[in-house]
Amino acid sequence: MYLGLDLGTSELKALLLADDHHIVATVGEPLTVQRPHPLWSEQNPADWWAATLRAVDRLVADHPQAMASLRAIGLSGQMHGAVLLDEHEQVLRPAILWNDGRSGAECAELEAALPETVDGRGLHAITGNLAMPGFTAPKLLWVKKHEPDIFARTRRVLLPKDWLRLMLCGEAVSEMSDAAGTLWLDVGRRRWSPAVLAACGLTESHMPRLVEGSQVSGYLKSELARRWGIPTQNAEGNSRCIPIAGGGGDNAASAVGIGAVRPGEGFVSLGTSGVIFLTSDRFRPNPASAMHAFCHALPGTWHQMSVMLSAANGLAWVKSLLGAESEAALLAQAAQLTAEQRARAPIFLPYLNGERTPHNNPHAQGVFFGLANEHDAATLAWSVIEGVSFGLLDGWMSLGATPGEVQSLSLVGGGARSALWAQLLADVIGVPMVTREGGEAGGALGAARLAWLADGGTVEQVCLAPKVARMFEPNAAAAPVLVERSARFRRLYAAVCSEFTQA
User: Fold this and answer.
1) Phi-psi region of 76 (alpha: psi -120 to 50; beta: other; left: phi over 0)
2) Which sequence positions are flagged as catalytic?
């Protein structure tokens, strides 16, 4: 048995996986976010640990024999968060999360501080990314400026899942995929960057040691093994330790869970936000388009990721706006539109929460353009999913995939339940979309698989793609209209972006 722990923003999920790929059980424990000031987003790490204990205790209560067969633990989690520890490894302040927006000024300062480093490599060349408030490094610059006493007492900075690791095994360790999201990692070389750390007033001594996601990072504390009924001796009476794998950031772990671990394999996530994830065998940055280039959770592997900040969120918004029964009901109406009605639908800019890839514009806003008396709820629903699909196309283009490089993309997230949207995405991006059985398991399944790899499993044995539930091939007949409308979509953003102001 292998245990995957996935520390999300709204839930701590625990998943128990057998070595025949059967998911024995999953449990979740809710988490809440504190927003004490505008733009702030924080959580108390103690709440993460309490949720972890509750979740694993539930697994033990319901599946004691399975837990007694545990071989390894893997971790996945929300990226970019900052957990600050003192010299006694005590938490100094609430963790600053990935969706905290307070450090915009510090991003500009970091960009200015590293136009070139001593060896001629600036911030973008080292990290493969623009400085954005979501990343960890600007958060520490904010603490240094606004909470200098806290900064002075900081002896270690950990990412959220890596703080859980500290609690599980007593080791301060991170792994490449999550570390790449800090802006402190030399992503191409897979090691901490002294230059970027120095620009933040830090050194490598503040950082955890690094392992690959499939490597052993430490061993479960004996008191926790006893609490969870995990034998600490084998049948021969020898000491038995439970290894903890390096694990992965949430998207990298999700990719491991869905089998997207080889070059050209990837997925589209239609959650609240939208992500296109593509695995690569080399570091392929494109910071000019606000595309993320990170390490994957497996050795010698990287990934590219485009992120849009409002995807399925846009459909939920228009459902609420129109008073519709549900998103599914609204999409059912949109599915009845004729091709001519779709071609006359308004163009929708889906930037309800600003945008990241490719515009890196936190002030971007949503727009319906071309409204007329003929347009009804079904038309607006179509406009929304079309606009989100065009936004994802912008992200896809930023990845620089060559024709034929990608055979298909797995579709995950709540929006993946819509056949209408899946077909539209295949038509817009020009790549087959597939839904997979069990694809909703996400990062927790990937974490359990990384535990399996740390226990000696092979990528070929462990990182299988779940069975295809349905495939959506691009419809060539739909392409001409969509190409024209997507071009209009891009022209509209260019025409109005100077009018977006901070609300």
Assistant:
1) beta
2) 250
